[in-house]
Every structure is written in structure tokens, then in C-alpha cells.
Amino acid sequence: MSVRTERRSRGPLIVLPAALWLILFFTLPLLIVVAISLVERGRAGGVKLPLVFTLEYYQRLVDPLYLGIFWSSIRIGLIVTGACVLVGYPMALFISRVAPGRRNAVLLLVMIPFWTNFLVRTYAMKLLLSAEGVVNNLLVGARLVDAPLNLLFNNFAVILGLVYGYLPFAVLPMYTSIEKFDLTLVEAAADLGANLRRAFLRIMLPLTAPGIVASVILVFVPVVGAFITPDIMGGGKVEMIGTLINRQFGVARNWPFGSAMSLALMAMVVVGVVYYLRTSQEGERPL
Amino acid sequence: MSDYAVELIGVSKSFPTSKGEQIAAVDRISLSIKHGEFFSLLGPSGCGKTTTLRMIAGFELPTEGEIRILGESMGETPPYQRRVNIVFQNYALFPHMTVYGNVAFGLEMDKIPSPEIRERVTEALRLVRLPGMEDRRPKQLSGGQQQRVALARALVKRPAVLLLDEPLGALDLKLRKEMQLELKHIQAEVGITFIYVTHDQEEALTMSDRIAVMSEGQVLQLGTAAEIYESPLSRFVADFIGETNFLDGELETVRDGLATVLVDGTLRLSAGSAASDLRRGQPIILTVRPEKISLHSRQLDGAVAGQIEELVYIGTDTRYQVRVSEGSRLVVRVQNSGSADQAGFRQGDRVYLTWDPAVARILVR
User: Fold this and answer.
1) ipTM of this complex prediction, to 2 decimal places
2) Domain range list for chain B
3) CATH superfamily of domain region B243-364
4) Which residues of B sit within 8 Å Cβ distance of A?
5) Pairing state of beta strands B64-69 and B72-73?
6) Which of A117, A137, B283, B334 fits B365 for a cystine, CB–CB 3.0-4.6 Å?
7) Geometric angle at alpha carbon B11, from B9 and B13, rounded to 5°
8) Which helix (H) or strand (E) holds A206?
9) Short-list A197, A190, A88, CA closest to B94
10) Do β-strands B161-165 and B84-87 pair in parallel, antiparallel, or remain unpaired?
11) How confident is the model at residue B57 (pLDDT cuts 50, 70, 90)?
């Protein structure tokens, strides 16, 4: 009895540091962002003093120009997520089939890119794709093309850079799911008359779906808001929500508009993820 | 149609090791399994019995030799096109499907119309005595029930041959005994050929029409339960199936199928001979089952004298360890047909052992 009451009274104490941390570095800043988005901008950044309430920046969001950028960001996010899952699933399957002794070494290979700064990796990617880069030199050298291709500063370059950057985030959750998956189930399906494609669709895919769901969220959410990769790989020619927000707080010095855009992005992602989780969990119910 | 359900003709399977060598898991096996037969592959783990089963199922392809199912050479036919089904050791039930979904799966793959699927699934679940469990998930079932679902899932396809990979291994002893009998009944009811893999010699003896005893990738002996138990052809088979005594000795004479053996240079014993090409003076092993030996308190003609070193009461029997010479001991099992205090002998008693020479076997060393 006394133990139980003691435990109950200590409960809040244990979460106190985490709660303080979240309030200080998440809730408060978020509230400040909300506040900034609702007042008029200052000339040199910041907000105009004394504060003047306005909904102007939210109204500007529905401008077709910005809606277009929102839409193209979502589209790039979906393409990148799809590519990461399509490339990452076979990778994760392969890793799970490596002998247990060597598996950690292979997993480490997936993690190694993280040892290099993200910015450096993205610039390296840019160098590879540039007109005098390795890829173009090889293509021209092999006489596959006459002149160097325009591989940079377009959607393709941005997507490639994002897939490269976020692939490990897709591989790891799918690996966890696939590693737990019992491959005799595929044999059982084959034995019962299912060819490889049907065994995969009916047995392996539904049973490894939780890993795919986690991968999709882990990749889609940061990619939609990405700004470094589109900035470097897109060379200012590919606009995404992230680059737009970045500009509002930088050269455009329009903090309230940037804040409104951030909140809109956040709302969109939260709604999207919740909807996605709902539908993907429904799919796991018995047929 | 062929005379046999399954034929293996000189089948071998080798796997590469991590060092790049090849290890033969199955080494030139030839077997012919008849229609409707309950056939067991029996052997210790690593003897190649599961690999053999997986080759019949089509999960592994033989490196050498040929497998025929219903007279048809399988070549590289994939598992989903073979008329065999398997019950896995861990059952391999689909956890995201109900019992109904699991049993219906194979029929859906064959594009059978759903009213017929419903009928056949119900029938299969009745056969394994699991009616009314259609909507349960595998996780909600006991081990024995999961076992039955796995069986129903395979049988519902009406295969020509049912393969069973140690299907009772995970069940407790009592349930295992029940399931052994039930499997026999089910097999009699459906009339399908069963190929049963097990390391449990008692299970194989109880259920099988014929048994192939395997070791190190080879079939050491093939025969009915009685043949294998009563007339083992090698030390390995005699040792693996049931309990037995081994005495190392030398062959003295062979006359009228009866061999005289000299053990420890002093003990002269007779036994029914196994092989005909035995030479005088050849080192041999004499084997005799503990329950075939009788104990007497008086000297009888031809009896072997000994002293009881140890006795263990094990319920139905009492197990005596008798020293018959300086280096040799024999285990004797005597059924406790009387009441407990009647159990005749005590430790240290002088006893005389007899057995019918025909039940003792001579094995080449």
C-alpha cells in the first residue's frame, strides 16, 4: 500500500525534466511562432512594435503561387518517400539475410554516411552531378552522350539528393520489421500454391507493413520541409516549402509570413500522418 | 500412375560452408515410398532427414539425383506446382489471418470457387477436430490446436503426399502421444501418403509402416518397425533405436546360422548371425536387447553368470546392471509383473543370464 502511493507520488517527479525540456524548447517556441504569425512584420525582420494583430499572412498562404509550392513539395515528398521504400525494402531484406555475425557490420555501412556532415554530403552529390562531374565525364567518355547532361538544378537533382540523404531512415525501421519476419511463412505460402509474387503480397508485405509505415513517416515528414538539399541541389531553381520559409526568415525579413507558413506545414503533416496511420492500421485487420 | 508415391534416385545435396568447402547433407539416397504408406525418416539432428524432406517439397533442389512424385520427375519444379504439402515444425501459421483464412489460403491460391472453399475448410477443420474455431487467430490457440490448424491447412489441398517435419516436437509428452494416434487415424481416413521426419525413435516405431534410419546423410537401414528393432544391421541403428547391450568379441565358429562368440577371452556366447560372410577370428559386436534377457537365481545350461551391480526401479520394469566379466556389463530389464516386494533380486546378488540365441545379433565391428 505504502509502496504504491509512494510510486504514484513519484511519477510526476520522474517526467519533470522531460516535461520542462519540452515546455522550454518545444511548447514555448511554438507558441511564440503562433504569436508572431498573427502580428504585422517589422521592417528589418522581427515584428512591428507596438504589436498589431492581423490575419493577412494566413490569407496570403492561399495565393496560387504558394499553393503551387506546397503542392510541389508534397509531390517531391511522395516521390522521395516512394523511392526510399522501393530501394530500402530490398536493402533491408538483404541485410536481414546476412549471417548474424556480419549483420552489424553491414548495418554500420548503412550508418556510415551519418559520420559525415549532411551539408558536406550534399555538396559532394552536387560535385558528382555537375557538368564536369564524375557522372558526366563517365557518360561522355563512354560516348553514351555527346555533351554533358544537365543533371543539376532541377527536380531530379533535388529528388536524388533527398533520396540519398534519407535512405538510411527508410532502411532501419523496415529492417527491424523484416528481421522479425519468419521466412518459413513464405515457404509455407509457396507450399500452399502461392508463387513468389503472391506469397510476397499476401504474406510478407502485410506482416512487414509496420516497418514500412514507420519508414514512410520518418522520410516523408522531414523531406516535405527540407530546405538544405533543395537549396544546394536545386540551385535556387527548385522551390520547396522549406526553402520558402528559410527565405522569409532570411533575405525577405518577413517573420510573420514564415511563421504562418511553418504552422501551415505542421498542420498539414500532422493531419496527413494521422490519416495515414488510421488507414494503414485498418489494413492490418483480419480480412 | 506409378507404383510409388515418391521415389528418390541417388539423391545428394551439398551445401557450401563458410570456408568454401562443400558439405554433403544428403549423400546418394535412394528410396521408394508406396501409395498410402506412413513412411518415417528417423535420425539424430543433422542426419539429413529434414533436407531430404525439403527436397521433396521443392524448397531445396538436389545437387545430384532425381526425385519423382507420382512417377513424374520433379527436376526444378517449384514448391507451388508440386502435389505435396508440408506441416512445418513451427507450424508456420500466418499470424495476420484467422484459422479460416489460414486453411482457405491454399484453396484461394488454386482459384477454387468460394462456396467450395467454405465446404472444404469446414470439412478439414472437422477432420482435425477443430470445428467452430474459424474466427480465431493463431495466437489465441494452444500449441496442440495450432498443430491441428497446420495439419488442416495442408490436408485441405488433398495432396498426393503429406510431408511432416517433426510436427509434434513442440508438444508436451501427453499431447504428443494423443496426436500420434490421431495422426494415424487421420492418415487412415484420408488415405494420403505420409512422410514423417522425426528424431524420436519411439514416435517412428509407433506410427510408421516403414522407417528409414538415417545418419550423416545416408540411409543406414530401411524396414518395418519390427525389422529395425529386432534385426539392426549396424551398431548405430541398434544403439539409436531403443536401448541395447553391446559386447565386443571375436567370432569363433558359425554353424547353422548360429555363431559362437568369445568375449573378453573367457566368455563364450552364441547368437543368430546377421551377415553370412563372417570369418573366424573376426572382431565383432554382439548385441542383445535388455528385455530379451532373463535372470535366474540358479545355474542353468548355457547361462552366463554375473553379479548385480546396480538396480533401478522404473515402474513397469526394473533395470539391472549385471557384471558378467571383468570388462563387460549387461543391462537387463525385467517386467514387474508381481507386487513390488516380490521383485526378486538385490544388489550384489549372484545371477545367471539366459537369452534365446536367435534374438542376439552379430554386427561387424
Assistant:
1) 0.83
2) 4-235, 243-364
3) Nucleic acid-binding proteins (2.40.50.140)
4) 18, 57-59, 78-80, 84-86, 88, 90, 92-98, 101, 105-106, 109-110, 137, 153-154, 157
5) antiparallel
6) B283
7) 170
8) helix A205-224
9) A190
10) parallel
11) very high
